[in-house]
Amino acid sequence: xxxxxxxxxxxxxxxxxxxxxxxxxxxxxxxxxxxxxxxxxxxxxxxxxxxxxxxxxxxxxxxxxxxxxxxxxxxxxxxxxxxxxxxxxxxxxxxxxxxxxxxxxxxxxxxxxxxxxxxxxxxxxxxxxxxxxxxxxxxxxxxxxxxxxxxxxxxxxxxxxxxxxxxxxxxxxxxxxxxxxxxxxxxxxxxxxxxxxxxxxxxxxxxxxxxxxxxxxxxxxxxxxxxxxxxxxxxxxxxxxxxxxxxxxxxxxxxx
Length: 256
What we know:
By secondary structure, the protein is α/β, with parallel strands linked by helices. The protein has ten helices and seven strands. The chain has a seven-stranded parallel sheet, sandwiched between helices.
């Protein structure tokens, strides 16, 4: 058994939504280190371009700015990616949004924005890219990895109703899509992160030491923690993990 080959992504292509910062960027770094050609997408073009420029020091990294919250944006991203590659080995559905408001005041806009991006977009982007994923699934399996959250597994004290519901839905959607796509040699799985420093999790970003006190392991997540999980699922090492959600949280989901 060659352990280097087991976790290698050499020669493979990866598309990561929400790849300009936070967890998406952590995954991009891991994939580049493992040998993949990486394409990152984000709504803000300048930030996406800047991150791709910085990550290009590690390997082949291309910026494909797009707003994947709309069907038009999804089609645009697929078209843009198709100008660079004719197949896709790894899709990471990481783009997401959150909204917090008291129960009595929670707005419809905060529901629709979050559930559309967190749950609808991963389905329809994967659907649009399925022909390219099938084309890549020859001598190895193609992979789709959804980025969920521990908030879809256990309840936290914050009133983020649409976020919790959308992430729980994404975890279940992962199972349903996995059953459909596994016979096509496309493996669907998910990662449920706990506290990682990001614009989505400002507490972990700005108050890491305080947040770490609530984590059983005693610290917030690092780039290596997220990159390691994502490389595992994307590589040959994770081929038999079908429809499952890998919790990467230092024990938070069970220690609340």
